[in-house]
Design goal:
Elements: H1 3-14, E1 22-26, H2 27-41, E2 46-49, H3 56-63, E3 68-73, H4 76-84, E4 90-92, H5 99-107, H6 109-114, E5 115-119, H7 122-131, E6 139-144, E7 149-151, E8 156-158, H8 168-180, E9 184-191, H9 194-197, H10 207-238, E10 244-247, H11 253-257, E11 264-267, H12 269-272, E12 289-300, E13 303-307, E14 324-327, E15 332-333, E16 343-347, E17 359-363, E18 376-381, E19 384-390
Parallel strand pairs: 1-18, 2-3, 2-11, 3-4, 4-5, 5-6, 6-9, 9-10, 10-11
Antiparallel strand pairs: 1-12, 7-8, 12-13, 12-17, 13-16, 14-17, 15-16, 18-19
Helix pairs in contact: 5-7, 8-10
Length: about 400
């Protein structure tokens, strides 16, 4: 029996009493992935990206481990909810226009002490001030550095279009604006190098493309390390009591941790290890989060149909955004139908051994987005469900 076949047998036994569709997290794999992230971070604390987890029980589990500290959130409403739930170090990774949320933040000493908001433009400071509604608490601020690699005099850009603050001078200019402005305190710098951390460099069947990605990423790491170091020095000249410099992501943990200027690493997807993280030379994780769909039809030889399945991931549309049938091994989508809203046909010889009601296990393309589809996660240890915990959705929250 292969390791994957053994996993399938374990998951089927663990969830025999539960009806599919369902989602599970293999805690042995989750904990092993967490330990590997800590090893790669080489002593620097890891701030957990909540959008890649979206389950309070699992956020609590990983933050109880040595090597993890703080949360990186994705909306202001989520940040305030987490702070009210007892998480006392929440960094909002994206600027917000949530005026009601800012009013709540500025009026509550506990929230203001626990949540740090992201800024890359003076206009965002203006919005926060206009939204205060009388609240006088000092708002903690983090500046975001644009990490994109710019080539040929800026005519070619590699990396996400995030912050407009690319140069150390621009970052320091905004730092001075924050420092001069009553009601704000500059506490951190963040830079997410998604073109390094979030792009696989060993795509099966594409050796030339993979080689090009590795060359690009090596150049990007060298350029960013130098520029980020200069940016941090420039900002520390304005705000010498800066508390943190955050960088990285699951795919670049060890590289970012090697930069002297970086004080903490961000990571989250590496806990679940969805399919987009199979294509890296720098690390190998264990799939920890899966979902199961039930077989409801057998339309012919070498074919079954499962209920649901149309769970695409965000990003540029393409086959890599789809979930993949994982267990039993050897199933594939029908190219004419793909993953369907209410039913999904699957092809391959393993289909002939599946009966009505059997489970087919899938891996999502991205990490936390799986939790937008399910109210609960069944936590599996060995071949037993040891707990069933709510996702954000199960607690009544879909923040985006």
């Amino acid at each position: 029996m292969t390791a994957r076949a053994a996993d399938r047998a374990r998951y089927d036994r663990a969830t025999a009493a539960y009806e599919a569709p369902l989602a599970l997290v293999d805690l042995d794999a989750f904990d092993a992935n967490a330990a590997d992230l800590v090893r790669r971070a080489n002593g620097k604390p890891i701030r957990v990206a909540s959008k890649s987890v979206r389950c309070r029980a699992l956020l609590e589990r990983v933050l109880a481990r040595e090597g993890f500290a703080g949360i990186m959130s994705f909306t202001l409403a989520e940040s305030l909810w987490l702070a009210r739930s007892g998480f006392d170090d929440v960094l909002l990774a994206y600027p917000s226009a949530d005026r009601a949320g800012y009013a709540e933040l500025a009026a509550d000493p506990k929230l203001a002490a626990s949540v740090t908001v992201m800024v890359d433009d003076v206009a965002q400071l203006d919005l926060i001030d206009a939204a205060r509604a009388g609240g006088r608490e000092v708002v903690r601020v983090c500046l975001e550095l644009d990490t994109s690699l710019r080539l040929f005099g800026g005519r070619v850009r590699v990396g996400a279009r995030r912050s407009p603050l690319h140069s150390p001078a621009r970052l320091a200019e905004l730092a001075r604006s924050v420092a001069r402005r009553p009601g704000f305190r500059l506490v951190g710098i963040m830079g997410y190098e998604g073109h390094v951390a979030g792009v696989g460099d060993a795509v099966a069947g594409h050796p030339v493309r993979s080689r090009a990605v590795r060359l690009m990423q090596a150049a990007a790491r060298r350029e960013l390390a130098e520029r980020r170091g200069a940016a941090v020095r420039a900002v520390r000249a304005v705000a010498p009591e800066l508390e943190f410099v955050n960088g990285g992501g699951t795919g670049s943990v060890q590289h970012t941790a090697a930069e002297d200027a970086v004080t903490e690493i961000a990571a989250g997807s590496g806990l679940y290890v969805p399919r987009l993280f199979d294509n890296y030379t720098s690390f190998t994780g264990r799939p920890a989060a899966l979902f199961a769909l039930p077989v409801v039809r057998r339309p012919g030889v070498g074919a079954v149909t499962v209920l649901g399945g149309g769970y695409p991931a965000s990003g540029a549309a393409g086959p890599d955004r789809l979930p993949v049938p994982y267990l039993p091994e050897g199933l594939r989508f029908d190219p004419q139908e793909g993953a369907g809203e209410v039913q999904t046909p699957l092809l391959g010889s393993p289909a002939d051994d599946l009966l009505i009601g059997d489970k087919v296990w899938f891996r999502h393309a991205k990490a936390g987005e799986l939790c937008e589809r399910f109210d609960v996660l069944h936590l599996v240890e060995g071949d037993t469900v040891t707990a069933t915990v709510p996702t954000y959705r199960g607690e009544g929250h879909t923040f985006l």
